[in-house]
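Shipment paperwork, digital attachment
Item: protein structure file
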Amino acid sequence: MAEAYSRPAVSRGTARTAGDIDQGLRSFMIGTYNYMALGVAGTAVVVLALLNSPAALAVIASGPLKWVLFAAVLGLGFFAHKLFYSGSTVVAHGAYWLYCAMWGAMMAPMIYVFVSKGLIGLVGQAFFIAAATFAATSVIGYTTKKDMTGWGGFLSMASIGLIVAMLVSFFFITDPGTSKMVSFGISAVVVLLFSVATAWETQNIKNMYLAGASSGGGEEFLNRSSIFGAFMLYGSFVTLFVHILNMLGIMNTEE
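Attachment content:
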């Protein structure tokens, strides 16, 4: 691995050694995962706060606010790169923590349903399955020698297709049995897609650091890249969690 890092540094004639790049990459990745973990913890705090506020849950679940949140999360996801790199580190932090809070508000009504039905154990199962899936695919993305750069376009188009499929299912499929089957199928595809996306994102984050280090990227650039990396990984993790929870819920409520 260290040899792969040394080539860009040496080719540019900088004083950075392979060991410098290797240590810097480890620190960068640890910082990125720490930001992501803090984001998940922040989301959990938002969820717990909302679970203790039935009135707020009702507003989110039954009013137009859920669609506002949905659109805001999608919009922030699609325009994140430009936002994170055109502003300042403060802007990057603000966008990231807002994203985490909005996800918490979106998830709270779903988790409340499980809690109210005595299925809190499924929430824990979904979290640990999502964490194991995320960890495995992130390790694959970090260690693989296969160049996954070209997968970004496919993943983006597939994500758009799944969003359309979810909206069609929600608005146009009214039969409960069919709706449940379609929902399970969509969630299964989402889990597969975002498992691949996690590997792609991890490799992309690694490459961001290597490119920044070899070209003399400053501390602010690397800080923004770390937060942006956490943003990408966080989005994949919570998406995995939500859809794994949905699948477990469907499997445990079948008659």
